[in-house]
Amino acid sequence: MIRFSVIWILGAGSLMAAEDVPPSVADAFWTTHVKSVVETNCVRCHGTVRRKAGVDLRSPAAARRGSKKTERAIVVPGKPEESSLYRVLLPGADPHMPPGKKQLDPESIAAVKAWIERLGEAKGPADKKAVEAKAAPETSSLPSGVSPRLVIDLLIEKGWRDRKVEPARPANDREFARRVYLDLAGRIPTPAELKSFEAETSFDKRELLVDRLLASDDYPRHMREVFDVVFLGRESGAKDAKTWRSYLERSFRENRPWNEIVDDLIVARPEAKEQRGAVEFIRARKEAKDVAALFAPSVLGLQLACAQCHDHPIAPEIEQRHYWGMVAFFKRSKAVSTPEGPAIAESAVGGYDKFADLDGENHKVYPVFLDGSSLEEDWPADGKKKDSPDFYLKKDPKSKAPAIPKNSRREGLARFVQQSPYLARALVNRLWALYFGRGIVHPVDKMDSAHPPSHPMLLDWLAQDVRTNGFDVKRLVKSIVLSRAYGLSSESDQRVIADAFAVAPSKPMSAESYARSLWIAVNGSVPGARDLAEGQVSADQLRSAIVPVFPELFPEDPQTTLKQALFLTNHPLVEKLLEPTPGTVIERALKLKDPKERVRLAVTHAFGRTPDAAELDQASAFLSRAGAKPDAAFRQLLWALITSAEFRLNH
Amino acid sequence: MNRRQDGQDCGSPDHEIHRRAFLQGLGAAGLGTAASMMSWSGLFSHPAIAETAKKQNKHCILLWLCGGASQFETWDPKIGRRSSGPFGSIPTKIPGVHFSELMPKCASIVDKLAVIRSMKTEPTEHFQAIDRLVRGDKPRPPFVRPALGSVLGQQLGQLDSPIPNFVLLDPCPHGNEFKAFKAGNWAGWLGAEYGPVRVGGKYEIENVDRVEGLSDADHEEREALRKFFSRKFENDTKSSAAESYNAVFDRVKGLMSCADLFDLNKLDPKDKERYGPGTFGLHTLLARNLVENGAPFVMVANGMPWDCHVFNHEIYQMIVPDLDQIVFHLVNDLEERGKLDDTLVVVMGEFGRTPWINGSRGRDHYPKAWSLAMDGCGIKRGVVVGATEDDGVGVTDSPFDQRRLFATIFHALGVDPHAQYDLPGLPTFHHVEKEAEPIKEVLA
C-alpha cells in the first residue's frame, strides 16, 4: 500500500505537468478568450454556414489561414496593427466589423489583439515543433497501471483547485447507499438493506456494496433499461423488444466488452442464438439515415444531423460528407426474415447517392468515417452497378442466413469505429454522465470541438485506460462510483458549479428507477419479494404509467414539466398506490400510536434518513391537526414525501 | 374560499381556523432562507382568474392557417382573371374591395378588419417558412429565436398566472413539416418555461381534475406539506433541478382552477353551433374564452390543411367557409364582450399559393405575394393595405416582410418592437431585427 502511494504521487506530478501545458499558448488563449467573442459576433457570417470574404473563424487554425477567396492573410503574427482581423474591429474602421452600428466592447477587441500578439511568440520551425509536441495528448507518458479511481480523484481535485471551489463534505453512509443503489440497481434501497449497510463495520464496506450491486440481478436490468433508451430512444423501440432486451441484459450481466457489443450491433450477424437480439438495433429503423441518427450519438457521442445540409456550423471537423458517409454505411442494409428469425441482409452494390452543398454543388456519397477513413469503392459513372453473386462470400448451402458481401460496408464501419478514439471516449462520457448527471463533455452526445471537455486529461486518460483494459464496463463503473467526487454530499451552501463535480449532483431518476422506487417507498420491499394483495398497484403498472410522462434520460438541463407535476398530483394510480393494503408502510404506520413515530416511519421509507426536528414537528402537527382522519392524514404525508424533490431526484 | 363539502370534514368553520393555524405554522417554521423564498400569502386566495386577467390587459389570438392558405380564395380574389380560379368574388363595404365569394361573412365585417395584401417573404418550403413566420426572422444557429407566442407570453403574461402564458391549441399529431416544427424548440433563448402548453385531441391536459375523495382543503394542505419538504431540499442542495421541480408545482393549483376553460364539453352549445363543428372552430372558441379569462397568447392550428397541391378548389370550397364563419364570430364576440380593443387577432399561414394551377388542379407554395388579416387591439379598422399585379404574381404596392409584420404585432400590443433581449453572453438580439418599422397603415 505504501509503495503504491509513492508511485501514485510520482504519477501525480507528471499528470499535472501535462495538464498545465496547453496545446500552444496562443491556441489556448483563443479557447479561453477569443472563442466566445468570435462565436458570438463573427461566425454567423464567417464560419457557421457562410464564409463571407472566404474567411472562416471557427478555429484559430482557420483564422491563421486567412481568406480562401483573396488568399490574403487576415492576421500577421505578433502584429495586430497590420492584421485586418484586428483593424476592422476598431471604432470608425472601414470596412468595420461587425457590419453596421454594432461596436465590440474594448475587452473583446483587446482579446483579439492579445491573441495576435501571442501568435508572434511562437516562431520558427523548431519552436513550432515543440508546440506541436506539447499539443499531442501525452497519453503515452501517463502513468498506466494506476487505478483509474485514483486518477479520477487526482484530476478532479486539481479541477477544484483550478476553479477555486471547495468540495462538499463526504456523503454519509445512508446518502451514499441511496445514491449507489439508484445508480447501479435502478432503485432505492429498502429500509432493511439500508440498515444492514449502515451496521457493517468493514473499512471497505462501500466497495463491498458496489461489488454486491454489480453482481446482482438489478445491475444488468438497470443497464438494459438505460441502454435500451440510449440506443433506440423512447419513441419507437425494438421490433422484438423481448429478444433485444434479453440481449442487452445478458451483455451487461456477463460484462461483455463494450467494443464487442458495439461490433454486434453494427455487423448484426449473430452466430449464437442468445445473441440474436443484436439485429434489433438496425432493424428498429427503416431508413439508413434513421439508423445513423441513432448510431452516432449512442456509440460515438456525436450529433451529425446538423451536417446534413452543410458542414457543422460550429464544429468544423464534422463535414457534410461525414453525415452522408455515416448514412452510407447502413445504406445497403435491409431487415429480412429468415427461418431462424430476423436478420439484416446487406447488398454488395447500391447506395450511389449524391448530396448537394449550400452552393448547390453535387457531391458523390462515399462510405467515409469521421476521421476521413473510407472504404475503397468504385462509384459507377451512371450511379448504377449490377449486382452479381461474385460480390458475395461463398456460403454454406444449408445456411438460411443472407449472403455476406465480400466488401461489407457494415464491417468497414465496425473496423473504423474500433480503431477510432470515439468509441472509448463516448463510453467514458456516457457512464460519467449516468453517475454525475452531466458528462465530462456536456451534453453527452455532442463530443465535438464546439463542446470542450471540462476535464480533458481525465477524459483522455480514462478512455485510454478503457482501451487497454478490454473495454471492461464494470471496471469503469466501479472506478467512477468509488471516486471521491462521487462520494460527496449533495448539500451545498452556495450555487453549484456543475462542471467542477465538487458537490454531488441532484439528478432526476430514470422513469424506470422512479417507478420502482415509488413502489419500494410505499411497500418497504422490492417488487416481487412477496405476492401482491388484491387490487394492489404493481410496480409494472406504475412503470407503464410513468414512462410516457417522464421519458427523459441524460437531459441537457433537467426540467420538470407541468404534465409531470399534474401526474403526481392527480393521477389515480398514485392515489391507489397509497392505499393501506396489507404489507404497506401505511398499514404498519396506522398500528403506531405516536404521530412522531409515524412520521419517522414515513420519512425513513421515503428518504432513507431520519427526519430532523423541524420536519418531525411539522409533519406530526399535520397528522394530528383537527379533523384529520389518521389514515387519510398519513396517506397525505406519504404523498407529500414521495412527490417532493428529495424523493424525485437522485442526490 | 370555494370549499367543497364532499371531503372529509363536516364543513364547520372551526376546521378552517385550525387548518390555517397549521399551515401558518408551516410558514413560520425555522427554515431560514427557505422560508423567505416561499410566499405563504398566496396560499389561501384561490387566485381569482378575473383578478389576474385585470393585470394582463393585452392578448393575442393567432389563427394559424398552416400549410399556407391561398390568397385568391380568401382576401384577394382577382376579378375576372384566370389566376383567381373558379370562384367568384363579392364586394365588401369598402368600395372597390372584394373578397372571395367563399367569405361572405368576413366581407360583411370588412369595416372591422385590416387586410394586408402585399406580404412578400422568402422561404418556399414549409419548415423554413413556418419557422420564419412563427419566429419572425431567419435562423441563426446555434441560437434559437423564440416563437411569437413565447415572446408575447413573456411580455404580456405573468409566470404565476393560472392560465399558461402560451397555449397552442392543435389536435393534429400529423402535418409533416409542421409536426417537425412542433417537436422543436419553441421558446428558444427565453427558456423552456416560455414554451407552449399544447392542448387539443390527444394533447389534452391530463390529470387536471382533483383526485376523488380529496377535498380542496386536503389538497391544499398536503401540497403545503409537500412544498415544505421540497423547498427544504432545494435550499439544502441549491440544485437547479430541484428549483425547476418546485417552480412547476407552484403552477399546478392555478392550472387546475382553470381546467374547465380547456374542456370542449363545457362549451356553450349555442356557441359551439356558431363556431363548429370542426376542431379549428371549437378551438377558436376556446381561445376566445381563454383570452376573456386572461390568457395572453393563444395559437389555434390544425395540422396543415391549407396545403392543397391537389384539388385546391374542391378542398377550399369546404374549408374557407368554415374559416369565414370562425373569423366572423370571433371578431363579433370579442367586440360584443368589450375585448376587441385589447385583443389582437391575426389570421395567417406561412405563405400564399401560386397564381397558376398545377397539373393536379392544385396550387403550390408562393411566398412572393400573399395576404393576411388582422384586427382588434391597436389595429385600424376597415383598411386594405398593399396590392399585387392583376394576376397576383408580384407585389405592386408596399411589399411587407415578416419583420414588418412582427413589428406591427408588437407595436399593436404595446410591446417595443426594437427592444433588445437581455441575454448575457449571447449576441445582441431584438424583438424585431434591423429596426424594421411597423406597418403604419394598419395601426390605429
Which features would summarize this protein structure in a list?
heterodimer, A: about 650 residues, mainly alpha, two-stranded antiparallel ribbon, about 5% strand, globular, B: about 450 residues, eight-stranded mixed β-sheet, 14 strands, about 35% helix, about 10% strand, disordered N terminus
Summarize the structure.
The complex is a heterodimer of chains A (651) and B (444). Chain A is mainly alpha-helical and 651 residues long.
Task: Describe this entry's structure for a reader.
The complex is a heterodimer of chains A (651) and B (444). With 651 residues, chain A is mostly helical. Chain A has helices spanning 2-20, 25-41, 60-65, 84-87, 106-119, 124-135, 148-163, 173-185, 191-199, 205-215, 218-232, 241-253, 258-267, 280-283, 288-300, 320-331, 409-419, 422-436, 456-468, 473-481, 511-523, 539-546, 562-570, 572-577, 585-589, 595-607, 613-624, 630-642, 645-648, and strands at residues 333-338, 341-346, 354-356, 362-364, 507-508, 649-650. In chain A, the strands form three sheets. Chain A has a two-stranded antiparallel sheet with strand order 1-2. In chain A, strands 3-4 form a two-stranded antiparallel sheet. Chain A has a two-stranded antiparallel sheet with strand order 5-6. In chain A, strand 1 and strand 2 (341-346) form a beta hairpin. The longest helix of chain A is centred in the first third of the chain and has 19 residues, at 2-20. The two termini of chain A are 32 Å apart. The model of chain A is unreliable at 1-23 and 123-140 (pLDDT under 50). Chain B has 444 residues and is α/β, with parallel strands linked by helices. Chain B contains 14 helices and 14 strands. Chain B has helices spanning 13-28, 33-37, 49-55, 104-108, 126-135, 148-156, 176-183, 216-237, 240-249, 252-257, 269-275, 279-292, 312-336, 402-412; strands at residues 59-64, 89-91, 98-100, 114-119, 166-169, 197-199, 297-300, 343-348, 352-353, 365-366, 370-376, 383-385, 387-388, 395-397. In chain B, the strands form four sheets. An eight-stranded mixed sheet of chain B has the order 6-5-7-1-8-11-4-12, with helices on both faces. A two-stranded antiparallel sheet of chain B has the order 2-3. The longest helix of chain B has 25 residues, at 312-336. The radius of gyration of chain B is 24 Å and the shape is globular. The chains are: A mainly alpha (651), B alpha/beta (444). The interface between A and B is large, with 64 and 62 residues.
